[in-house]
Records
---
Amino acid sequence: MSRRAAAVALVAACAAVAFATGWARATAPDDGPARAAPGAAGPERHTGPQGRVGQFVVRCGYDHSAPDDPIVHFGHAGRSHRHDFYGAVGVGADSTAGDLARAGTTCDLRADTAAYWHPTVYDGDAPLEPRGLVAYYRAAPGVAPGAVEPFPFGLAMVAGDATATAPQAGEAVGWTCGTSTRLADAPPACPARAPLHLVVTFPDCWDGRRLDSPDHRSHVAYSAGGRCPAGHPVHVPQLTVAVELPVWGHGRALRLASGNVYSLHGDFLNAWDPDGLEREVEACIRRDVVCGLASNRAEEAPFFHG
Amino acid sequence: MRARKARTPVFLVASVLALVLVAAGCGGGDDDASGDGDAAGLDAIRVPQDHDTIQAAVDAAEEGDLILVDAGVYEEAVDVTTPYVTIRGVDRNEVILDGGFELENGIRVLETEGVVVENMTARNYLRNGFFWTGSDYYRGSYLTAYRNGDYGIYAFDSYHGQFDHSYGGGSPDAGFYIGECYPCDAVIDQVVSENNGLGYSGTNSGGDLYIVNSVFRNNRAGIVPNSGSYELCYPERESTIVGNVVHSNNNTDAPSIDVALLAHGNGILVAGGVRNTIERNLVYDHDRTGIGLVPFPEEDANDLAPPRSEWEVPCAQTHDEPVPEIPEAECRSIEGLLAGCAVMWHPFENRVVGNVVEGSRIADLAVATADLFGTGETTDTLGNCFSGNTFATTAPADLEALAPCDGEGSGGSWDAGALDLLGLFTQPAEAPPKDRWRTTPEPGPQENMPDARTKPAERFEGPVPPDLDAIEVPERPAGS
């Protein structure tokens, strides 16, 4: 057998394995409509390989799901669509930041008792149990690292539009495979070694006064060109949350508890131990040091396999 | 610069008194873990005598200071941002940083030059035992790291470093890791790495990077440098691996991340790395290959593999450049196999010379790749060479004749007895429980640094490259 023939045979053998294990046809991402350019509606994001800019990362396990939202529907248990919660343990509709700080955490940095949540992802009628999330804390692109202040305790933030029925402008939310930074509006077909992730990037400018606002948005904003807008002068970390889902390949009927896949959004309620957050912001963001990384090294799936 | 902590005459008197009392009580000596011994004459900040915690001592230190830590269990995660300090335990086996499965890193050095850590143990940290990041002129000597959740002893984006006389065990990733640097100017010498997912891992590192005179045993896989665009400074290149004992890396009880499951059962496995030198190692008892050169398929890659013309570009020149998305036209995938923009990192131009390789269940020496994208890079075109090794089996067959390091190859068939890459990649070892690392074996007592209580701190000016010519193939350890 010639070398070329051997290579072809290897591909054919791989294909046979793939089909035998039920993998579907094409692997090109189902990107859907073209995305709007980043701007005021969304963040400027760090893209490409990790290891260039200072960051710290927190890995948090999935805690529970409930139709609660302690930011948007505080005190009204059951009023929200279903959310998946991470970070502080046992978050409910009437949880305050103080409550969270006294709870345990699912995060590997024990100082991170903040809460993170997003609408549950369904495959048809079946809710998917996420594998966990990685939270990246960095200076937003162009922002002087030394200017970044820790989030104030109790800061509430929402990113993305829960009412969207079409692709959202900007890149506050999106879907990707593994730790890739290319975002798509709709879930792409992913390999098992880099499974589907939903990605939410929160505002990185704060008005310096309010922990929340009536619309839960106007007290924070996104920076542009490394600058915060005049009404939101305080640089805080750019928080990007990537949630890993047990999804790869094609043929899924994915939707969100809030609507179709375009209605992706996420929430963050800061209840970090203030000393712990200050330490990480100082050590990693202000010094511009890579304190941790996330990669697909730990994914549980063989190569060449559905 | 922070103000130096004043060490008062009162303290000196107390130290002398303590010395007299302790010396009278237990007689001192190198194996004495009681602390003071004859250290009172040493110019050092003492823990816990001067400061209750190592962190407090580090915060009080100035450039050039020695921090001498007494025997005890320190439940701390220490951050170091003071340049050219030395943090030393009086007894490697009795000075223990313990993360209690709650804390992140034992000692973390953050963008700070010249930090030396020596003669102590870090265990039970959720991430790393000893960690230098963005920190040049680093040295870790006589360190023991075990039961840590990511790496044992770890340097990232750091240059001019040395790990020596140290032990890394029981981590699901690597016992020792040096990553994202080129040319690294770093030496790993006389270390032992066991019961890890990977004995050594280095992603996108190399260039004056030496791994010598060390033991990598009973891991999932032994020494595994690799390339990938998930971090910067690709490809992995120019690592020099000489005079190591690499054996029995088939440990199904070891913790493991997924790439270690894929690499399971291999002694020295170059995964998509280039221009590495693998010489005069003793490699034996592996379920797959003793020394293997294989591709690393990366799905959803951030960048394409750089051409040969860019392999010698220092990382410093590319580190801060933006990486544009892979153009759609160059974004390759294979239906049902490799998704997104996939990149095959091929192993190019590695030299495998003068090793003694025995008892490999698939092949003592092996090289393979797959030209999945039709770029013409097949196993025979990669420029790897094999000469002067002692072995029984190779894949492809007759590898030293096919690809000698000097002269032309035999022109024989590269297909005969070729490595079954598909089998290698589709049949990873079974995953252990995620928390397996928490219960890995405790190492026995480890060799202490000589004169730990009396030796003044020395400014570390960078590693001395090992005398490679003086290194011979190691003898097989007794009883193995």
---
Amino acid sequence: MAKRIEVSGLNAYYGRVRAIEDISMTIEPRSVTAFIGPSGCGKSTFLRTLNRMHEVIPGARVEGKVLLDDEDLYGPGVDPVAVRRVVGMVFQRPNPFPTMSIYDNVAAGLKLNGVRRKSLLDEIVERSLRGANLWDEVKDRLHRPGAGLSGGQQQRLCIARAIAVEPQVLLMDEPCSALDPISTLAIEDLIAELKSRYTIVIVTHNMQQAARVSDRTAFFNIAGTGEPGRLIEIDDTGKIFTNPSQKATEDYITGRFG
Amino acid sequence: MTSEIDIGSRAGFARDDGVAGPPRSTGRLGDRLFALAAQGSGVLLLAVMVAIGVFLIWKAVPALQANEADFLTEQEWNPNANPPVFGIAQLAFGTVMSSFLALVMATPVAIGIALFISFYAPRRLAAGLGYLVDLLAAVPSIVYGLWGLHYFNTTMDDVGRFLNAYFGWIPLFGGDSVGGRSLLTASVILAIMILPIISSITREVFLQVPGSHVEAALALGATRWEVIKLAVLPFGRSGMISAAMLGLGRALGETIAVAMVLSTASGISIHILADGGNTIAANIANSFAEATETGRGALIASGLVLFVITLIVNMTARLIVARRKEFA
Amino acid sequence: MSVMTGERGEAPTGGGTLPEISFRRRAADKVVQALVYAAFVLAIVPLVSVLWMVIGRGLERLDPTFLTHSMNGLSSGDEGGGANHAIVGTLEQVGLTSAMAVPLGVLTAVYLVEYGRGRRLAKVITFVVDVMTGIPSIVAGLFVLAFWLLALGFDYSGFAGSLALAILMLPTVVRATEEMLLLVPGDLREAAYALGVPRWRTVCFVVLPTALPGIVTGVMLAVARVMGETAPLLLLIFITDAINANPFSGPQGSLPTFIWYQAGDPNPQAVERAWAAALTLILIIMLLNLGARLLSRLRKPVSR
């Protein structure tokens, strides 16, 4: 069910300001691709163009092509709602619905999609929570509010919510930046398990994390403040961290700037 | 000058104490007088509130003692007769009925308006359109009354006849002497008047909906309506309830528009299309001019009842808001 | 997984990458959108209708005569006549109301923000201000009737009306001022204390001036609101057809009560005057509203 993403000539704008410029890359299925780069380099903006979340910000727009197995996500007549249904997303801060129970949080996307039968819901909720390595911790309190969990548990709840609808692609926007090291480890283990079934794209500030979890790494940079972000290079993670082909990449990963 | 510097540093010291709040004034006459004036104003405000209750009770008691009927159950309002006979029953019924109908009509529309301005209207127009709705609140009630008396009641006359002809089997829409100066017309005008209150408070609540919850819903592949259902309405529920209650409080106390529109008739009737009906506030405005001393006392007594009802409704609404703030 | 495709109408099917959004979901979305737009239109219809009627009918009689003449010596069926006495009365009553409610309201807000924070008394006052916002205007009128006229024995006057209006205006002024004072940055106060300026002078000459445009805006909106109040005036200022420039003695006119009496009169000439007075009232209120909006847009207090 994982799909390949091909991006070509993509520009994203906030009003008149161009945030990212002319990005083209291929994201392989059943693998983890990490986006790294200094703050403001447009890596999160780019991530949000992959499920058409960028355009929900007033004045924001996108030019270019994003092909998901040959179907252009920005093609005419494509409903962004359908795009987000197959490209799931996990955010920087865990954001479970506060008024809903753990169970209802996981089931929220399923109910939208018309799954009503209790036994089927139970089954998918359990499978998703197991998939997010959360089942054992919450199975006795499924009907308690999701907001009562710890930060790391909430983030895994959000991952469970995202994978419950069985997306093709899972986008993660700095999913560990608000978590402590132990919770971070749990999420990283989870990512390693999930990649056998999903195409995963993760934005991270943490280069060690990128090196640990990803198969391929893309480095983004800006020429200066106010300039749009660009893709400098994308390659196998091992190569990026040992022998990058661009000087800027090397400077960044060796800590000479950023 | 030197002494002022002294005060300043002392004030600064008090602040560093870690005591919550601003420094206390320390003896300077100007500071003391000013603090006293500020605090005095606040206390005066409290005193006014207490005085309202005290004086209403004081001036209502003699009339209530002279009353030959049971004030709470009697439907007649005849305080000027000898012996005086009056009761609040019909007026209270009309007040509650018209306000309740107004609330039922206004709340869904007001929430719709708030949703429109917060989530549907083009961003650039939203503020202007919101201002337009707020203009409804700027129109004084006397003008709604004039409009209701000399224009809108003819429209409502037709509406009433239509409802009576086709839905007369529903008790609410039944009865004879259907007309434009009915409880329904009053309720519709009340609904128009409380719309901007409910919608502006609801809009404020919607503004506080965390963007992260909206994004969570969007990222699950929710349509706009589903985003509202998942993230906005559950968050705003208690806010919307208290907004509706504040609107209800306003409708209960509204006087002039209702007094102008209703053609008063006595007796409790659930036929809201029929000419007639009366409310506590409208009755005060309409019968004050002819009231004797006992009559005035009786009107003050009815005002006391209205005061208590609105107080309860408003305090409940505020408590709901306060509770919500603690949660957030 | 095959178990689910049957029930899940939108599971990706065979060839297409993107799922279809079911008809039911798309329809629900569109229906709600239509309802929400309809709600807005539904609110605008009465606004347009009221303004249309007031402007259309009001312009028929809004002439110099109307603004400069009173109803003295005229009976309600006569042509001509005007609302001058009512305009004078309204302006004086609202002026007196502001003279009482503004200082009291501003001082109360100063207490709440600058002195009372965290204190029990301040909490009580805040709650009472909230509750006061909901007092029906007719109840405020009855209170002044019971207190000023019946208990203290004063006579009907414009001032009695102002007392009731002040009760209605107070909470609005307190709220608006409070909001503006809270916007004044704390370091501005600290800067003044650091210079050795005493507290009351800091408030009077630093804090209040910074918040002034906002306070004036709030006051103008509050004035606009009480200007249209009718119910308490019916009980307190009595009725007169002549100009009475002294608000402290004898019956006085006012625009709202003028509309009330003229609208209730069976003669069409009177009803015409009621519409013209309504237009006059709305124009004054809209001017105040507009002025307040402009002022708030021109000079927002600097907040960080």
---
Amino acid sequence: MTAIPLGVPRRLVEFTLDGQEARVPEGSMILDACRAAGKDVPTLCEGDTLAPKNACRVCVVDVEGARTLAPACSRRAEPGMVVRTDTERARHSRKVVLELLASSVDLSTTEPAARWIEEYGAEPDRFGPDAARVDEEPRVDNDLYVRDYGKCILCYKCVDACGTQWQNTFAISVAGRGFDARIAVEHDGPLTDSACVYCGNCVEVCPTGALSFKSEYDMRAAGTWDEERQTETTTVCAYCGVGCNLTLHVQDNEIVKVTSPHDNPVTHGNLCIKGRFGYQHVQNRD
Amino acid sequence: MDLRFGDGKPTDEERAAVDALLGPPESSWAGADRGGTDTADLRWARGGREARDRRDQLLPALHALNDRVGWISEGALDYVCRRLTVPPAEAYGVATFYAMFSVRPRPATVLHVCTDLACTAAGADELSAAVAARLGPENGVRIERSPCLGLCERAPAALVIRAGEPSCPTPEGSPTPPAPEGASARPAFEDVAVQAESGGPGAAAPGDGNGKGRLGRPTLHATAVCAPATPDTAVHAATTPESAPTEPAARTAAPQTGNPALTPTIPTTPTTPLILLRRIGTTDPTSLDDYRAHGGYTALRRAFALGPAGVIREVTDAGLVGRGGAAFPTGRKWQATSAQPDHPHYLVCNADESEPGTFKDRVLMEGDPYALVEAMTIAAYATGAHQGHLYLRGEYPRALARLTHAVRQARTRGLLGDDVLGQGYAFDIEIRRGAGAYICGEETALFNSIEGHRGEPRSKPPFPVEKGLFGKPTVENNVETLVNVLPILTMGAEAYAAIGTPDSTGPKLFCVSGTVARPGVYELPFGATLGELLALAGVRGNLRAVLLGGAAGGFVRPDELDIPLTFEGTREAGTTLGSGVVMAFDDTVPLPRLLLRIAEFFRDESCGQCVPCRVGTVRQEEALHRIVDRTGTDAAPDIALLREVGRAMRDASICGLGQTAWNAVESAIDRLGAYR
């Protein structure tokens, strides 16, 4: 018999969300309630497997009585709270945040950014041609994955995934300050000189494509990357007895990258170097 | 924790600097030489939680390296990480966060030339250029442009820091201080402090013929404050900081002391003698006896008589609100913390005074250090804390020397320690130095900084009273706020509350600088008007604008001098009191340049955590740069852009830095009509 842990029963918190009664379990974030109610609140730094970092500020909502806007991803719902997700004030901040991001980094591989930029009427070009950008050359210093910090929005997800929240390897951190802050390994050296164990769990959570598989990076450079032609097959890793789930992304009968389902109750989308990158033998046809 | 370290090795000097703070390494796991240790090393590694719990020693360790060598090398950083079980990537992130540290080699001497508002108005750019023409890396001096050094009353200011062997024990006491080898070669600390008082800039001269055997090595750690600086004095101080002229006594920064003519005889408020500044200039700041002779420690006795709840009641009844800028009721904060069931409780004194134009806390700490020690003891007693942290700005060498000395004296005399005043109450103070980060004045960023993390603000809630330093209930107060507790207890809440206005009680310190005849810290009861304050300081020239509250504050016009200097009065007038900055500018100061400097300040000091502030402060600076010489319709599109970005920064930033980064610029546009 399999026991299914139900957890401690939680009280429900009642509050007002866009004029409607909302009820969420105690401890839930405003964002949880928004999603349950089917509202499209944009998020970038929020991750389904990570504690909210509350850095991008694109999910801000209006809480009645508060001096500033509140981040929906990390503000807990409180009884009696009156929250509005779509006020002019909140939309303005989201629009400007999108403009600030799009004018400073390359969002071309940040999946939903283009849609939000259109939806909020953001004009990233209005800061002029001389607006400072995070101009970083892609760092290709190993065969497994590429770090292109010109696309990085500093969401901290990779740092959290590498640190206490999942991997406990602590190979990366934010270095520097302000606009010059960057994700870096110790002494800002190459990955090969760092504590990195190449689990690729940072790539798994990166929302922008700043971290990408070398295979994907090369195919994008060659113009052959085409997600339309890819299939995804979820299977079980054959290396050890843990039995992690792998999702193989296959294009033209070649594995082009490996991800893992985030809802897996054991691994939560995390893998090790073998499951993540050790698929070459599958394709060895000699 | 399975950490990986690089191949870098510390030099002997770097190792010595770290070991002086942390004690010698216990095993080769922690970086000791493999040869010399016994075989026990091979059986087990000491570490685990016990080692990781010393993470808060990271910032002091980085300071130790910076003080000794002037920069932080890969080998040195790795050694610190081994000793403290900190991942090297995280330590690198911390080391690169602070402006006073460098992870690249640099000359041993760094000359920080303040280029902020008051100093720029007093010719900092010319000073900086003149010094740069005469000094350079070839002289072993690196010149760095610095944000406000808190010496606005003596603008333009410069601070020299020369790395070298310590001339006194490090202020950050490690939990297990090592027995100093050759202790006789180390000057007793009191001597150093006395020297600092009697003329030296806080450091012993190298090779001063006192038989300390350092004649051949002119590399003692030394600091020198040079203000007002001329190219000559700055060059002299940078090349020989140990023989730089003495800093003037703290009382010179408080023009009212010893000058009854400047005691406020203000029609709107009853005349009161100086309360907060009364000991400055009249009491020897190094002498505990003198402090006690001038009424010191009567407030603490009264506190013990009242009991913790009684103290909180007095502070609440007195109507004391925080003086750091946020104006939160102190009594309510104390009550909330003392009521927390979680233990231990901590007390943190925020002495990271970095708001441009603010120097009141420096004057208090330099002129009356024991008052802060006593006030911290009272605050801790009231809130049930047994450990206090004093987070002191890294750019205040004299305040550091004075307070280190004061804490030591208080400890020897039983006023700190296991049994304060024989009342069975234990309390001690640990001084932590900041390292050049305005953001660390934000209360939660300050906690992260003490804990050895990057000084990034946390999101609130939870608030510090619930989860603060080390995740425990914490009271954090500004220096001026704490010092106000003393008169509340000696005078009684009622008499204290009678000073000022009903909503803003007590005396208030104002930092007056800019184009005034007598810049300095002024103490006035709340309720005096801006004009009355400026009359005391004596406005020079044709007043064009007054900046209230510092870079995060706002400008007002010369025809608004009747604004009452109270929290409610400034709020009503649509401006802010902030940290008490009152900076006057005459019409020769180009306003657009001033605004650009404010924007540069926020761009440099943004921690980079949230997007609105990280990128918004850059876009604000770019726009102000574009319109620095434009007016009218030429500037209009950029002003519209500034408004949009400013609004998003105010609404969506995590902390007060981003939320206020547009205040001063907005007020200059709307109130002063800049760019019109």
